[in-house]
User: Fold this.
Amino acid sequence: MYDVAVVRYERPLESLREAVELAGGLESISRDSKVFIKPNFCQWYEGVSFPKYGVLTTARLIEDMVLLLKERDVTDITLVEGVVEIERKPESMLQKVARGMGLDILANRYGMKMIDVLRSPSARVTAGGVTISVNRDVLQADHLINMPVLKTHSQTVVSLGLKNLKGLLSIPSRKKCHSINPHTDLTYHLAKLLDFFSPSLTIMDGIYTLERGPLITGRAYRSNIIIASKDPYSADKVGTTLLGIGPDTVPHLTLAATNLGRTPDLSDINIRGGIDVRTALKPHLWEFEQNESGDLPMYFERAGVRGLTYPQADTTMCTYCADFIYYVIWGVLMAENRDKPFDDIEVLHGKALDPSGIHKHTLLVGQCQVKRNSKNPLINHCVNINGCPPSREGLLEAYAELGIDLPHDFLERMRTSSETYMKRYAGNPEFDESFYKIQ
Ligand code: SF4
Assistant:
């Protein structure tokens, strides 16, 4: 049986201490251990406010974890993360996150180091027939403490411990995970990640949880839950159950069960802490709903969008396109002629979608789509947004060609669009920004 602790978050340090002790403690970590902490910093908006609730690991739990390690006199502590940056600038995105959340204070206060996966050497590693490039330093760690957020994910159903490990991969390897080949697709790669990494401890941050994640477009809840386990797969099964989803319905968890010779249900788990994981939280949705005919997301239908076909994102859409797609969506929602039907436009994204042959215009988003379909004879009028990442200027040109009238300051408005999502939580005392700032 595998122990998984589930406790209520009530107060700094002590709640995490309770969870860690119920999960078996930190005895295996000695003062000489080299310890890496992997949080989940999947997105950051510099210079504007945005909801971090359920999107990012809280600064509160990261500091509490560091404090527990310092109590054991551990001195070699490193935070490791790779935050995707669309445009490479001198200051890395992780440095911006560190400044924004005050993690650099942890560096000064406790000597914690920071390693940016995307700006540090990688090493090629092979396991179970898969070769990927991963951060080289993390391979030297004695202990990896994985600190994901308790959230659902619109492509992978949940994004918990296994999914968080993907952030240790180089960008080319992350892209490889989103393969179009069903035998080596994202499910396959996520289920394989435990062949490469063996976290000593998983701490799942459920102070805020997120439905329809993983990014700010999801809806956060104040849930006050911490999950802790020395067994990463068990932590994910319990986290999934807390979100109201059967682990046996999550493709990468069922495949991982097969790989590990385990069961995808909770029958091999001893839940400690006295919380009923099946009823403690409200069920969290993971998919964005489509309309009845399945050709348009409900957020477009409710906004009165007509003359557009926009399929669900599948697992072949990888990091850059997943970020860029908000420009595509917001472009439609902000269009000055949105009150009239668009001119029968179909949008194709990711690596697997193909044109239906029945629309007047087809917009191909990203170089994978351009490569796959720009010469497809089923397309009547093809409009491309080239690049990986796809180019914002390319989007302006493409929308002009398609007759979608963007406001003249569209890109500037996009820079501050994250603030729109803050309104959901404004004035609600449960949503407290101080969880995301080291004091
Ligand atoms: S174009 Fe998009 S889907 Fe293709 S590799 Fe780049 S990010 Fe991934």
User: Anything to note?
Assistant: The pocket of iron/sulfur cluster is lined by residues 175, 178, 317-321, 350-351, 366-368, 388 (CB under 6 Å). DSSP finds 15 helices and 16 strands in the chain. The chain has two domains: 2-286, 298-407. The first strand starts at residue 2 and ends at 8.
